[in-house]
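[AMINO ACID CHAIN]
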Amino acid sequence: MTDTDWMNSISDPDMQRLGQICPPRRYARGERVYRRGEPAGSLHILLEGHVKLAQPGWLGNERVLTVCGPDDFFGENFLTGAATCLADAVCLTDHTVVCPVSREQFLEVATQLPHVALTFAMVLARRNADLEERLHVMTQPVQVRLARVMAELAVRLGEDTGEGVYHLRLDLRHDEIASMANASRVSATQAISAWRAQDLVLGTRGDYRVNVRGLEALIEQLELEALE
């Protein structure tokens, strides 16, 4: 998911009107915003908390596609005419706040709040570019994929503490991080252990200090080694 930051470009009156057209809903940790296979009837705007999108894996395990944070959109496939949801949307935090936008509400937003509708369109267009980049990343070595996932999560969902270090509060297991990189749980555990030894990732599940600058240097080194 892209770090949209779209709310900062919308005026307070427009945000208030958007909330009137599409009232937000609150969820607790572990609740599902929707389930895979349910009718795809709404675009969802995440206002607070974290939501993971996941599908069943080939071996019956869970495959995490991505984790959404505040300002992110998910479930936008309904705009393409998709009949059903393609993944489970599971809340990872208490007090998760989501604003569902149905087709009818989307048309009302487009009519009454054209600037908001244009912002939505820009975000969704940017999403296509992100997907193309993700496809490229999946062809890289597993250690590179894992490092990119951790760095991307830290920058997008973490708090910048300065000097390239981010505080990431995110309750994901090693196997969930691994699935985002199309890797095994063992690979993820080994990678995170190695990063700890290099002071690149400190902390444990749910509370990490991620040296993104260091991870980016490691990614560059691994990519160069793969070319040799």
In short: Helices lie at 12-21, 103-112, 114-137, 142-157, 174-180, 185-197, 212-227. The chain has a mean pLDDT of 87. The CA atoms of residues 144 and 223 lie 7 Å apart.
